[in-house]
TrEMBL record:
It comes from Acidovorax ebreus (strain TPSY). One of its GO terms (molecular function) is nucleotidyltransferase activity. This is Cytidyltransferase-related domain protein. The lineage of its organism: Bacteria, Pseudomonadati, Pseudomonadota, Betaproteobacteria, Burkholderiales. Transmembrane segments: none annotated. InterPro entries: Cyt_trans-like, NUDIX_hydrolase-like_dom_sf, NUDIX_hydrolase_dom, Rossmann-like_a/b/a_fold. Keywords: Nucleotidyltransferase, Transferase. It comes from the Bacteria. Residues 202-338 form the Nudix hydrolase domain. CDD domains: NUDIX_NadM_like.
Amino acid sequence: MYDTAILIGRFEPVHTGHLALLREALVQARQVIVIVGSAFQARTPKNPFTWHEREAMLRGALPEGDRTRLTVLPVRDYYNEAVWVEAVRNAVARHSPPQARVGLVGHFKDATSSYLSAFPGWELIRMERQGRIDATAIRDAYFGATPATVAHALQPLAPMLPPATQALLEQFAHTPHFATLQQEWQMLRGYRAAWATAPYPPVFVTVDAVLRCQDHVLLIRRAHAPGRGLLAVPGGFIEQRETLWQSCLRELAEETNCALPEATLRAALRSVTVFDHPDRSQRGRTITHAHYFDLQDAPLPPVQAADDAAHAEWVAIDRLAGMEEAFFEDHFHMLDHFLRLTVH
């Protein structure tokens, strides 16, 4: 018998495969801690539900007596495995007794399951995969329906869906979030279909400009899907005859009309960091080169949105930590890297 059993997942949404792992954890330990990943993100077709909504699905699938033994902890995606592992360990340590015997419940589905090997000292409680249950198929059926046809569209998947999940999905379909996510899901499907005949999966190269001045950072609101209305740093795809530096300057000027001379930006450049996590963008494998500039105490340059930006503004850095759920893709984590917004 373990003191604590750990289950880690995104649960987008909770299905019967997750529930089988959770039940095994409850058999194996007095206390079960579920780590809900991809927490504090903006809603996307891949991550449509808040961690609170996923907690409700998990608890709703259990008898009352088992719910009292369950602790649900949200952990953000750091796009850095070492930092993420430390965050998970720290969260578990705060909610389990000292020197606890800890078991980690899971199964090796594919490359995304490699995290199961990242916790030496925790004993792996290995389970076989429960059929061919896949949350991606559930989301595709869901967003391919209308609010009026959701129940019918999910009917073939009913054996995979606990009643609490089915109920939340049907209720959520009648919220404004569903329509927004459905439009983005359709856009992303079309985007990927356009590259389906390529001889090999494409790798996209982009640039981003993290521009700091007087303890403010320059942000835009995206005008188009994916991420319409979300906050981002100025940036975009490089063009065929540009260097990364030229692309960065062009995107900064096009999206914000920030008219700083190249020499000024060259003097303000502090570092260039590559962000290349395979899951950082739902458009496909996208590697970005983030250029970090610090104008220090210079006057805030005037900005005005254009091109792919609906709005451009200078935002105080001390406000950013409370705005995490409003950011596109990994842009909050990009800012965190340069500005140390969270405590790792």
